[in-house]
Amino acid sequence: MKKSGPCCRCPSLKPSRNTAQFYLLFLLIALYMLVGALVFSSLERPAELQAHRLWEKRSEDFAHKHGISLGELKSLLRHYEEARISGVRTEQGRALWDLPGAFYFVGTVVSTIGFGVSAPSTVAGKILLVFYGLLGCSASILFFNLFLERVITLLTNILLRCRRNGPAAQVQEKRAEGNKPLKPSIYQLSLILFAVVMLVACAAASLYSAMEGWTYLESLYFCFVAFSTVGFGDLVSGQRAQHGETRAYQVANCLLMLLGVCCMYSLFNSIAVIIKQALSWLLGTLERLYNTIGDCRRQLRPLFKFCIPESNTCYCDDKSPNKKHTIAVYSSDHGTYGKAHIVTISNRNMTSTFEVITGATTPSAGRVNSHFPTTHLLFSDGSNVAER
Questions:
Q1: Residue 58 pLDDT more than 60?
Q2: How large is the C-alpha radius of gyration of the chain?
Q3: Which of 4, 10, 3, 2 has the alpha carbon at shortest distance from 319?
């Protein structure tokens, strides 16, 4: 029996390049998160357990010293946790909902930082925040994208001026390459944006270290958390009582936040492009490896044709009125007769085996051994479609 291509035109199960990138990125992010969870758990879990043990000991000692029950103390602490939402602190701080405090709050909303220091406590405020944040966050993302475009334009103009001021031979060489637009590469852009982010973060950390009483390392940590819009809320700038009277510091704080978030967002976008390029390279490498293995198998197949029977498996759709779906068609050269082939057809309900004589061109050449629903079968020599 002559072998040919697949016996039916079934849709390919091979995903597109974009779909493959999506699934590969999802798996890599999941793996990245799993590794990060293991690392942070090993680092932070012992400190968490130690803090819990220390807190329980201090609570018991305080309750015993002042003659109150531990339950009453915890009830008071729960009331304090509820009061923190409205800005109540153990130490006097700046007002959260005066005009400067409210402006600071909406700034953390539209920039998607969300420190969590202040949050609406009224029902009307919570409902307003949903719609206010929807419009404000969308406008901020548009502003960040336009900021990135301006950065690319600025770098393009700088590179163009540098090329024009260079030797005449370089200019002629660039002209010979064609009238392609001169733009910085994604690696140059990422490097420049990284340098700008580090410059802004170092300058801001110096200011925060002086005004907030933090160490320089804590100030750098706060800058990354704020600029990346993670916003844990463990460190928040401009919340001390004396900061309410320092208008210059409040303005500088807002400007640094805005500049830092814009630069960090642009850096994230450029790194995302590099990651996408890396995924394309990885998929191309895997595809070339797969094709190489396939070529090696095809080259070695003649060496094993006497040891391993040839088989052909294809997937078809039943076009008969019974609407049965053929799962697989399997043919083997190990027939009962010298010139016959055993063909096994399986569907969802039953399996049928029949014999097809080599070179047959009519349905009568096959002797069906059992009843089988109406199925269209294309002989492996491609010469006929037999209907049973």
A1: yes
A2: 35
A3: 10
